[in-house]
Amino acid sequence: MDAAPPFGPARRSVLVAGAATAALTACPWAAEAAAPVTAALPGGPSGAVPAGRAAAGAAVELPLRGDRDTQGDVLAGSRKDHACLLLLHFRGAGMARRWLGRLLPEISTTEEMARFNAAFSAARVKSGGTDPASLSALWTSLSLTHPGLRLLAGRDPFPALPAGGTAEAFSQGAARRAEALGDTGPSAPDSWLFGAEEPGRAVHAVLGLAADDPGRLVEAVARHRDAVRAAGGSVVFRQDGATLTGALRGHEHFGFADGISQPGVRGFDEPDPAGAATVLGKPGTRIVPAGEFVVGQEKVGQRPAGLPAWATGGSFQVVRRLAQDVPGWWDQAGERLAELKKTGAAPPEATSTWLAARMVGRWPGGTPIAGCPAAEKPGPPGRDPDADLTYGDDPQGWLTPLFAHIRKGNPRDGLVTVPGRPPLAAAELDGRRIIRRGIPYGPAYDPAAPQGGAGGPDSPRGLLFIGYQADLVQQFEFVAKRWINDADFPPGRNPRVGADPVLGPESPVAFETPSDSGGRATTLKFGRFVRTEGALYAFTPSLTTLRRLVDGGLDASIEVHPGTVLRVGDVLDAGDARLAFGADGDLVLLDRDGGRPWSTGTAGTGHDAHFSRDGELSVRDDAARTVWRSGTAGHPGARLLVRPEGDVVIVDGDRVLWRAPDGDAG
Questions:
Q1: Phi and psi of 317, rounded to 5°?
Q2: Where are the alpha helices (DSSP H) in 285-389?
Q3: Which domain holds residue 594?
Q4: Residue 110 phi/psi, 5° resolution?
């Protein structure tokens, strides 16, 4: 949740006071960014200019914008005002596969969404910010849980479950891992609306529908419910979501602009010619290797994914229903502000919004408080709100508190792991980013509404969180456990920083301010006003994998993707076969009993192993000289597979180019 107070009479004055202060405050950058303008994709219906033209006129390759295999919501995003998730259970594999076969033509791809979003954004800019009535779409996505994959494939989707890895996390599911993620007490699975069902009612599939037109969405939901029922399935849970209206449009229920800070993706987002590490037009947004979000693309540090071939082109999905107690949140902000004023840690003119902005790290309109600490000041439309955002010059958290929600979830260039030492480079955190697709549910809070009335304090409302990543453990779970919920992050500070006051557990936090002696900390106790009401781990497969599942097929071979580098300690586990790079520099095939039916014979010389983009596996020494090779160069698109059958192969289509333990095969 990247969270303005509700706009009823009791709290509207808070915003007015904040706006009045903002008019007197100079800020170096804008408060709100318009939707980015992206060129339409090549091959579009109107002969549009190809995407990826840099300002200097040089072509920039953005191959992922033309991807017709990866589902569109992962990289492009549906960006619709109305959405519905249907959580489905099926009684039998045969009818479920036939249902999937009929659904396949409707599933939206990256290419389709990217093309539409580009046209929509361009038309919106041309009309001065009004949504174009002539452009409308209905998007469909499908994700499968571990029980769902097992049902459709007729067997477990993983040949092995290495302890601590994403395969283990996915197979266990969100409910079994809830305690470690802070889902305890009122957020524990025994009170969830979905995600903790008995096996006979387990969620198998997450069908996502999103549309501009609410009427069209209603029709689609009814049609799909009928199709599921005809296939012997049932809807375990239905979750509707919709963009809030009026002054809260683009905000979540606490009133803060949401979805601002998304990572750029290499091969999808156009890099800035002045510095390829950031997105064109968004200098505060780093470009992250696509393999952190889509399995099979290059990862940070060329690390192996270690996942089965069926995962290639897909992404792990986290679904969470997060209930928000809006009046409780703002009452708390007012109470804690009074405490700060008593100690002199907050200025006398500060409002509840002043403190709430520090809890979030942004003002309600999206402006980071790092550049506008006194109040929010809107800037030129279309300017990236994070253009100048840095924490590197604020190691103590005097501008943006170290406990602030956006800083805990993405420390950027301000993460000091040992007090007194320089912060880590922002690039070192690229592997922790996730892509967020959230949408509010429920009516906006109206302080004038009675208890039990629409908009009243007890009306169900919150945020439907959807996140995509290639590794559940190293991305979503790491950020949740080690950053958001950990009171000792950043580490080694006295007093401890405290947990994220937006999403984390109840926790005292250290509100740090400068003083004549260098600094002081005022302890504030924040309660929990966001509650987990349901959670799922699912996987959003490529269309190739979905087509195979229609026939009950699923390739469980562990795939080593082109560009991957294996280093000492890396083990790719396919059950009866494991490919390991040993501490002695030898690349070894191990059987289930630990035998070594094959190795490269590079002990004493090997430093790493590399699978190239033209299909060759090689072992290199510490000077990057090749000391062993498979002899399969010249085959771009070739695949390296560690197969449960007990061997390792390099294949080009159906042709085996090389095989171990037997050696050359073609």
A1: -115, 135
A2: 326-343, 352-360
A3: 558-664
A4: -60, -45
